[in-house]
Amino acid sequence: MRRALAAVSGATLLALPGCTVGVRRAAPKPSRPTTPPPEVVVPACRTTYTPPDPKRPAIRLTFDVDAAHAHVTGTEHVTFTPDKPVTEVVFRLWPNGPGPAKNGGRIDVTRASLPTRYESLGAPKDRPGTLVALTLPAASPAGKAITVDLDFTVTLPRSDVDRWGHTSRTAWWASAHPLLAWVRGTGWATDPAVGLLGETATSEVARYDVTVTAPAADTVVGNGVTDAPVDAGGGRRRWHFANDRARDVAVAVGPFSLRRSDVGGVPLVVAVSDELATGADAETVFGPVTELTTDSMLRHARRFGPFPFPSLTMVALKAVGGAGVEYPGLVMVGTRNYPGVVPHELGHQWFYGLVGDDQGRDPWLDEAFATYAEALFNADEDRYLGALDSPGRVGDPMTYWTKHGRDYSRVVYAKGAAALLTARAAAGDGPFDKLLRCYVNEHAYAVATPADIAAALAPAPQSLAILREAGALR
Ligand SMILES: [Zn+2]
């Protein structure tokens, strides 16, 4: 997401909630090495994205939103083929984390097809835990498909700057279903939830099929193109969308005005909540969001590779304020800061959406890279370079940042972006861009680690040294 920053030497950073970093312009600082970069030989590598694993999970979800927009009743049907032996199937219940819980949010598994076991992992005492494991009757070998079913209810938190919330007319949620927590090649992701506003979820790419039933007056958008709604009876309509390569699901329900376009063959929907603006006022949102999204999609694609999802939905919600929240194929924006928020969140379509990461353990692998993408898009690298010499280790996990919240954005976002920008200058822009493209292609639709970016940048030892000095690489 794009979120708050604290003060940093050489740069005063504007506090903003949410995923997006707001930064006042830093004092001028030398931004480029004065010596010419050494010769960097870019090795042969993949020229296209590694396709999603054909054995990735297939997950069918239904969500039923009540008339008050405060509660969602859901079902989940999962077919999962692990690449290692397993004795249980682990899901994360992120709405039970301390952030949503303090605003009244929670998720309860009301029925499961196997016996359940809970772990707190950061949940407040009055919540059932942020992890539920379904215990298999016997160990299941690698490569064997497992099918499980869950029913659940979600109480949406009060409206706040976050990925979930509700008003009397609008409901929005993401990472709000029991989230299968497998990482191919590694195993279960068990990072604790933290109180800091930011992501800790880790999940692999899955084939999602999502049905949402809502009051008939509402419009539903999600991280896939919705089919035309059908009458569900009782004054309700049913909507459906699919995304065959998403790590997670994001949905918004309410009084939305929509604007549709096509960006290089990718359907783009911009949804503006009537609670934010209507009529002519809505144009002040549609205009900049559509233009910045279109430009970001095209320019990020030229730099990092083709837009990685079948569609993109931009949802403008009043509650999100000056922040932004990213999901694969859907971005939530608020009321302002679009020139920074939109290219940052669109950067996440490649870094987190396409090249996934353990957002609890390695938040810099998506936040520093999204800020880097934003800085290159806006050609304002100097805005961040001042943070490079400030204290803090870019590669620290969310369990560290939750105790050092004032430093989180300055170090992970700004210093992380500064380290990447400086590493790019050290290698030469062209070779660095090619090495980064190799990293993206190699780890597309998977979950990458700091060791993976270190391996990709091995031909540029000066760049690696800069990232190590910044504490990005262990
Ligand atoms: Zn972000």
Helix content: 25-40%
How large a portion of the residues is in β-strands, by DSSP E?
A: 25-35%
Report, as a whole number of angstroms, the end-to-end distance: 24 Å
Kindly report the spatial arrangement of strands forming the biggest sheet. 4-7-2-1-13-16-15
Bound molecules: zinc ion
Largest sheet: 7 strands, mixed
Q: How does the overall form come out from the CA principal axes?
A: globular
The helix/strand class is: alpha+beta
On the 0-100 scale, what is the average pLDDT? 93
**Structural Rg:** 21 Å
* Count of helical stretches: 10
Low-confidence stretches: 4-18, 20-30
Tally of strands: 24
Short descriptors:
alpha+beta; binds zinc ion; 474 residues
Map the helices and strands.
Layout: E1 58-65, E2 71-80, E3 86-92, H1 98-102, E4 106-112, E5 116-119, E6 131-140, E7 146-155, E8 165-166, E9 171-174, E10 179-180, E11 182-183, E12 187-188, E13 206-215, E14 219-222, E15 230-233, E16 236-246, E17 250-254, E18 256-263, E19 266-273, H2 279-304, E20 312-316, E21 324-327, E22 330-333, H3 338-350, E23 355-357, H4 364-378, H5 382-385, H6 398-401, H7 405-427, H8 429-443, E24 446-448, H9 450-456, H10 461-469
Parallel strand pairs: 1-13, 19-20, 20-22, 23-24
Antiparallel strand pairs: 1-2, 2-7, 3-6, 3-10, 4-7, 5-6, 8-9, 9-17, 11-12, 13-16, 14-17, 15-16, 18-19, 21-22
Helix pairs in contact: 2-3, 3-4, 4-7, 7-8, 7-10
Bound molecules: zinc ion.
Zinc ion (ZN) is lined by residues 1-2, 19, 344, 348, 367, 370.
